[in-house]
Amino acid sequence: MNLTRFLLLLIGLASFAACDIINPSEEIPAYIYVESFELQTTASQGTNSAKITEVHVSVGPNFIGAFPLPALIPVLENGDQEVVLSAGIKDNGINSTPEIYPFYDTYETVVNLQPTEIDTLRPVIQYNPNAKFAFVEAFQSNGHIFQFNETGPQIMITSDGAFEDNSARIQLTRDQPEVEIATNLFFEDIYDTDLRLYLEVNYKSEVPVIFGLTGLTSSTQVLGSRLYNPGFSPKEVWNKIYFNLSGLDPLNEFNGYRVGFYGFIPEEDGELTLEEANIWLDNIKLVHF
Question: What is d(CA 74, CA 90) in angstroms, rounded to the nearest whole number?
């Protein structure tokens, strides 16, 4: 080989290598498709109603990310891989605060991932066995625990327009434009520095409602120091929300707590905006570790 041909060959090889560096071959992903989660509950855990909005995905040792449901998830790993799916919710119903719900178990399976192929997973989950239910209130009778009425109308139990069987309905009027109701039970040992405490609520409402805790020094007291923080805006159709009650520092000095809520007809220029309004509630659960 003469020198000229040898140099041309070197230049050609160098050009080919440079193209490979600039435009490296891309890995072809496999795909995992998750449409939704199914929650299974026991009788003591109440309804299986859930609002799982994201899936958090790990494949093998790698966390892939969080994806809105339904999700088609590209994965570069291949072959038999352990896939772990965690249920994501919106803390306090706020889109900017997605969280893995700590009281739902993860879904784990092994998937044989192949490039371009789609594996559809249908995760079925349960509550974490360590989850504790301070109460589960489905409003199936007048013997519900929200009997501590501070102001406004009483709760009515009705099947008309109910979410499941019966639901709680509160009707506000011009004469009674606000309501504050709490549990008649006094809860101890649900609040400490390591607390994970959530209140699950199914609702529809024509007015704003806020939820929270009332700190008490004894079970016989009237409503004490209130900390009503997360809430919901009016919504015409049934919805579910997960209220994060963890970390309410101003209440950590009390011996126990009632769970309560406050709803009201808003005012505009000093006048009520509605002549009457309804609040519907169902399947309220106070869950903690």
Answer: 23
